Amino acid sequence: MERLKVLPKKVLPIITWLPKYNVQFAIRDLIAGLTVGLTVIPQGLAYANLASLPAQYGLYSSFMGVFVYCLLGTSKDITLGPTAIMSMLVAQFCSRPDSWPTEYPAAISQSDPALAINLTMLSGLILLVLGILDLGFIVNFISHAVIVGFVSAASILISFSQVKKLFGIKLHHREFFKALPELVSEIFKGHINWYDFAMGIICIALLKGLQILKQKKENDESLSPVVRKVIWLIGTARNAFVVIGAALVAFALEKDNIDFWKDGCKSGTANCTSLTLTKLEDASLPPFKVPMLSYSYEFLNETTQEPEEFHVGPMMIISKLSIGLFIIPLMAYLESIAIAKGFAIKNGYKVDPTQELLAIGLSNSISACVSSYPVTGSFSRSAVNSQSNVATPAGGIVCGALVLLALLFLTPIFVYIPAACLGAVIILAAISMFDDAGIKHTWKLYRLDMIPLVVCFVVCFQDIAHGIIAGIICHVLILLYKTSKPSDGASESEGHIQMAPAQGLYYPAAEMLAERIESAVQDGKNITLDLGKVAEIDSATSDAFKNALNFAKKESLSAVVINANSQVEQILRDNGAGDFIAEEKSSGEDEKDAFLEKV
Amino acid sequence: MERLKVLPKKVLPIITWLPKYNVQFAIRDLIAGLTVGLTVIPQGLAYANLASLPAQYGLYSSFMGVFVYCLLGTSKDITLGPTAIMSMLVAQFCSRPDSWPTEYPAAISQSDPALAINLTMLSGLILLVLGILDLGFIVNFISHAVIVGFVSAASILISFSQVKKLFGIKLHHREFFKALPELVSEIFKGHINWYDFAMGIICIALLKGLQILKQKKENDESLSPVVRKVIWLIGTARNAFVVIGAALVAFALEKDNIDFWKDGCKSGTANCTSLTLTKLEDASLPPFKVPMLSYSYEFLNETTQEPEEFHVGPMMIISKLSIGLFIIPLMAYLESIAIAKGFAIKNGYKVDPTQELLAIGLSNSISACVSSYPVTGSFSRSAVNSQSNVATPAGGIVCGALVLLALLFLTPIFVYIPAACLGAVIILAAISMFDDAGIKHTWKLYRLDMIPLVVCFVVCFQDIAHGIIAGIICHVLILLYKTSKPSDGASESEGHIQMAPAQGLYYPAAEMLAERIESAVQDGKNITLDLGKVAEIDSATSDAFKNALNFAKKESLSAVVINANSQVEQILRDNGAGDFIAEEKSSGEDEKDAFLEKV
To answer: Taking 90 as the threshold, does the pLDDT of residue B318 lie above it?
Structure first.
């Protein structure tokens, strides 16, 4: 496979690949860009819905990020834009506080778009500052165990948040423990929109069916290559096909009830139709406007019954977003860098974490100027991009252009997309996020890491931000406890004690060591990893070593672990990295005995 | 020297030494107890003043702690009671919040005694819980660097808080940065009580003179043993002699102006006299009463002009004390255990940290029942106790009995003690606390530790509690940073890299390792300390190793450090522990080269 080695440490990595650009690259990027575009348009509309924003904000968030990343990014595969996790966090942090007046005329969505846009700008600036100060290592304190707990909780919470759409039910509560009984009671009362229900069930069946078809048949050698290509395309762009189909059905059913170009139903609400359709403000291209951490909106003065302006200043925005300004930038960077590193190892190139921090930061800041909510790397679309054999980050330009065209010409159609269909898209995306493999892996390797995992998972149901914070604090406390209790390595004999104190290696150190090994592999070096000075490793360190050693193996270099103690050896073997452990044992034991005799 | 080995892990260590008790022990304990008693009575009166409590609370805090510790403690030298640091912290946390009504009739001191007593009870209970759960290691996170910064700031703050008493000036502000300009301006305006000023200067001169006399002459061989004994006694009990002298002078000057048994001047206020005297409620033995986290006091209802009851409940107490409930128990334990360990190593016995936690906890809880404010080990009095050759914790019983006698019979005299004299006692005690040696030591050994030291020192001037917290957080952040950046131990050659990752040992681990070594020394073992697995050590770990190795040397056991890398070797040499480093080098380097050739 052709390698595109992007040099790190350059502020504009595009300089390194653009001069080599050719027709073959262009064709690959065009095909990949179109495929990803067909994925991001329905996903964007659905995720905006999840973020409690009008649907067009999903598209506003889908083009500028990829353009900027194309100039600054060091991974060819990753595609920025709205994701399920970010959308859920936006819904969490961007609702207007009760102390602010209600918008007049009433807003069509629960989140405040202006707040979300300012959040995007601030998140981008925070990441830029972290990048300039080279403080990217702080994301290492969000351990893999906490991520597994968070993503698994998010999977359930996101899926659950969409179930009401399948039933066409509106709920008063958003908190899980209040919304769940409310939903159950509404269903038992029979407050179900059967149009929505039928649409939702059919969409889920179609999406799941196409997914299974793709999994089973795309590599079926008995089929002709053309049929296989078609199956791959339909399977990959299944969201687009199902959403278009559902919109056509809705158009056929509802075209007489809705006349959104003329009357109040322009904002397409459920009242106009028997099928709940998509909430959309009159949309076209968003304006280019730098968010200045202050904005106004109109509310109805109750005494005069006149609309008045309510001004929101920087301190109000910052105090409203509060820990969101910690969580959202870090999660954005973490999601993105994790995906980028994964594809970099898979496709044999190198990402520069600090440059990625700058790229994600600037992508968000500039994206905020076109009314985007926070963007990050999307795992599902990056996978589509990579499978489409994208050559350079320029694939993102094609994808972004497609989104712009959709905004220009397709908004009349979007209003007909049934809410239940978008709900089905999100539910299937969210269910697949549940990380049962990650939970089993943690349980098997290093059971102590289950504590932050479970703490994070459980607290997320009360509040998703508190869950992340609780998980991080819990894991840091375990880390501090470990730091305060090193192994004393004591061996006693009559009248003598020898002590060889040593610390373990834990999750914050894992990435740094893995990067060091991967960097050596890039330079074509064989690896000897001497773990004789390590008292213990946890699951994250074990994973990092395993991945880095596998990378060396993949590049046909030798990789050997020596002097591992029994705990370290066991955890590496349990993780399937036993092959790297050298057969021969170190002479350390003999040496120590010899010394003891001498003394 | 006779060793009194107190067995740990016993809930009542007294059981181990009481059966061996004899007349010789009794005489030693009697002499030491009387000497310490002569020190604690003037110090108690002065420290209560520093805690902004009526003077008798210093004595209430001076007897029950030593009684309980006598049953439970594992150190013969330590004496519990009021200390300068605790008194300052009580003044910080036990003033009534502005939202509570003012006491009627007006209180004679700024701190609320009932609040302080409840704080004592809660602090004791918190320590007991920590002891039962074996969580004593958390004090290891208050690093030595933070303690040096805190104690040095406290030294300045405590001295400064007493300067006004030398001038007989009353200030409105308590915060350092507001009180300092106010004091200067009052002095320049000439608002000085010259009686107080003369008294203060004479007391300082006398106290300092007696201290110098003791230092210079107590070991002067040209003097007869009796003269030397007298000098030692006068020097050691100088506070008592100076305070008694000052009280006699005040009595002579003021006896016609004050008639406290009959009229309002019973509470001995400055208005009755030209010399500012001691604030004392009518005092005798305190009642035995368990603080139940709720109490009432009277205030004047402004509309009715009638006194009413104001009830203070548990939640009000807890929210008022807030982080005091974290800082005060930990500082109490830390001060006490540090002193106990110091004397244990000096006098060749062993303290059990968990048992000490229980002992300090229970001492505070029971002391709270006799109206004590929080107590901990006093360095100065423990030193007096040790120098007086105390044999068992029973010395505390004599000392406590003396305090009880003073409370029963001497309170009429205490009212005549000039405030300036007590101020002089505190200033000289506080100045000697300034830890310039500790600052130089940290600077020399491991400069990074200066950051938490300086942060703690500086923030303490704004708020003493915030200073401690800021120092701890700062040091934990440095620790986490270090944990995330282990040494990779990389050595590269053509086409090959060998990595031997290792972590350093930092302050939270220091005590645990030192205790392990000291425990082996107790068992009479020779020590080999193999530091080959340690990438780096900080000043606290260097100190801990040095002390533990010196302990082995003192017990005539061999103690050798091997395989230390250059940083570790240097910091040990800088710390004066170079003698322990073995001349011969490990064969590790050769071994590694051999392996590299083989691969």
So the answer is: yes
d(CA B195, CA A20): 91
Percent of chain B with pLDDT strictly greater than 90 = 53
Predicted pLDDT at A124: 97
Rounded-to-5 percentages of helix, strand, coil across chain A: 60, 5, 30
Show the tokens assigned to A325. 């300004």
Run of H or E residues at B265: none
Place of tokens 């170079």: B578
- pTM, two decimals, is 0.84
Distant-in-sequence, close-in-space partners of B202: CB < 8 Å, separation ≥ 6: none
- How high is the pLDDT of residue A257? 64
Q: Which of A552, A553, A551, A544 is nearest to A572 (CA)?
A: A544
Q: Which residue reads 């390194």 in tokens?
A: A16
Write a three-state SS string for B132-164: HCCCHHHHHHCCHHHHHHHHHHHHHHHHHHHHH
Residue entry with tokens 């001191």: B109
Question: Does the pLDDT value for residue A171 go beyond 70?
Answer: yes
A594 has pLDDT over 60 = no
Nearest CA in chain B to A499: B529
- Take residue B53 and report the two structure tokens written for it: 């409590």
Residue whose entry in the numeric block shows the structure tokens 């107790």: B522
CB contact under 8 A, B508 and A535: no
Residue B259: per-residue pLDDT: 52
Give the C-alpha separation, B326 to A115, whole Å: 38
CB contact under 8 A, A499 and B517: yes
* Cβ contact, residue pair B509, A591, below 8 Å: no
Q: Is pLDDT of A342 > 70?
A: yes
Nearest Cα of chain A lies from the Cα of B533 at a distance, in angstroms, of 4
* Set of chain B residues whose Cβ sits within 8 Å of the Cβ of A528: 496-499, 595-596, 599
A-chain residues near B596 (CB < 8 A): 528
Q: What's residue A65's pLDDT?
A: 93
CB contact under 8 A, A502 and B533: yes
